[in-house]
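Duplicate of #3305? Posting structure anyway:
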């Protein structure tokens, strides 16, 4: 399991501190649209186009808040699943890595929660479909199903969403947060795919 140990060591080397490695004094003005409108999926939708400029601005911030809230709830689920894998994963190396991932996921919950509270001030509840998926993964006793549900389905989709947000976000602080989270998540997905491949 040389790859496992290498990724575990890499995780330690790339550890980051949300308090020290991010400049939370940066403030992106609420009078500005938070995301690049060239990538707005609502463009051309009559209901959206009928909004005033002020309403579109408000909608943009709520849309970002909803998106980040789902990231936060997803990371909470990933934190719980990683902690379960630390005890039920099939090898010592996998348990070791799951323990390190648990800390990564806690840090992700921290940064998304803090950004929502301090920079936006809007917090949406978890999407019912996401909650149902998380509940299913958390309640399944099989380590491989936990792995597939979280590391392949949820985190795989999250990586795509993170990369889109990094491309479209205007706030430099948010871009930096997303960059650090992507770095962690890409390592997680790679590790568990390698592990599962060894059991297939």
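Output from current build:
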């Amino acid at each position: 399991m040389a790859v496992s140990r290498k990724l575990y060591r890499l995780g330690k080397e790339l550890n980051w501190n949300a308090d020290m490695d991010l400049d939370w004094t940066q403030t992106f003005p609420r009078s500005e649209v938070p995301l690049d409108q060239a990538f707005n999926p609502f463009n051309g939708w009559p209901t959206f186009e009928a909004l005033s400029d002020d309403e579109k601005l408000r909608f943009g911030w709520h849309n970002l808040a909803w998106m980040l809230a789902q990231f936060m709830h997803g990371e909470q689920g990933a934190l719980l699943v990683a902690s379960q894998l630390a005890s039920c994963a099939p090898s010592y190396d996998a348990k070791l890595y799951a323990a390190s991932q648990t800390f990564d996921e806690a840090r992700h919950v921290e940064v998304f929660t803090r950004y929502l509270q301090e920079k936006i001030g809007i917090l949406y509840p978890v999407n019912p479909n996401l909650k149902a998926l998380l509940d299913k993964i958390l309640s399944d006793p099989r380590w491989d199903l936990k792995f597939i549900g979280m590391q392949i389905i949820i985190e795989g989709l999250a990586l795509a969403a993170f990369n889109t947000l990094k491309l479209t976000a205007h706030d430099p602080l948010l871009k930096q947060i997303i960059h650090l989270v992507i770095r962690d998540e890409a390592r997680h997905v790679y590790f568990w795919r390698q592990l599962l491949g060894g059991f297939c």
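Confirmed duplicate; merging threads. The mean pLDDT is 89. The two ends are 15 Å apart (CA to CA).
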